[in-house]
TrEMBL record:
Keyword Acetylation carried by entry: no
TM region positions: none
Entry protein name: Protein GrpE
Coiled-coil portions: 67-101
PANTHER family documented for this protein: GRPE PROTEIN, GRPE PROTEIN HOMOLOG, MITOCHONDRIAL
Length: 207
């Protein structure tokens, strides 16, 4: 008598002498198990892909946040640099303007000191001391050329319209509304367009 446990095909559901239906049933069990394993692997891979995609998305979000932070910081630094550049440009312009003003004031101060000498030469000329060629005439010519080089110009002549902004009236002999300079007691001077001394005059009626 044969013992069922001695049959090697007993656990597989079909023996070597099993019929076609039994063999097909046994083969179907193996295919189902294989397909189940494949589906499990596919599901596991899909889960891994989802997790990886989530990690990549999270990393991309972190990168975007960092890029936004750096961009904002760059914009802030750019604004600071532009503000400092504008302040420096304004400082340079102010310094240049102050230097130019200092030069003009120093030049006007020197020219103002020379005007007393110009007055002496004018009086000498009125007395006829500069009529003849001589050392004093030569000096007067050089001195006046120096004033011209410094862009110091005189103004105030008899017959000019009276302007209280640049003329200092010590006497008014006019009788009408129209006033002109009758006599010049002291010439006025400008340095470029800057007034450095008013002209001292006597006001008279137009001729």
């Amino acid at each position: 008598m044969t013992n069922p446990t001695d049959n090697p095909f007993a656990d597989r559901g079909a023996g070597p002498d099993a019929g076609p239906a039994e063999a097909a049933s046994a083969e179907g069990v193996d295919d189902a198990a294989f397909d189940g394993a494949v589906d499990a692997d596919a599901a596991a891979q899909a889960d891994a892909d989802v997790v990886e995609a989530e990690v990549v998305a999270e990393d991309a979000g972190d990168i975007d946040d960092e890029a936004s932070r750096l961009r904002a910081e760059l914009d802030e630094r750019t604004e600071d640099l532009q503000r400092v550049s504008a302040e420096y440009a304004n400082y340079r312009r102010r310094v240049d303007r102050d230097r130019q003003l200092d030069r003009e004031l120093a030049k006007a101060s020197v020219a103002g000191e020379l005007l007393n000498l110009a007055d002496d030469l004018d009086r000498a000329e009125q007395h006829g001391d500069l009529a003849a060629e001589g050392p004093l005439k030569a000096f007067a010519d050089k001195f006046r050329n120096t004033l011209t080089t410094l862009k110091v110009t005189e103004f105030g002549a008899a017959g000019d319209e009276f302007d209280p902004e640049i003329h200092e009236a010590v006497q008014d002999t006019s009788t009408g509304d129209d006033k002109v300079i009758g006599d010049v007691l002291r010439k006025g001077y400008r340095l470029d367009e800057r007034l450095i001394r008013t002209a001292m005059v006597i006001i008279a009626d137009p001729a």
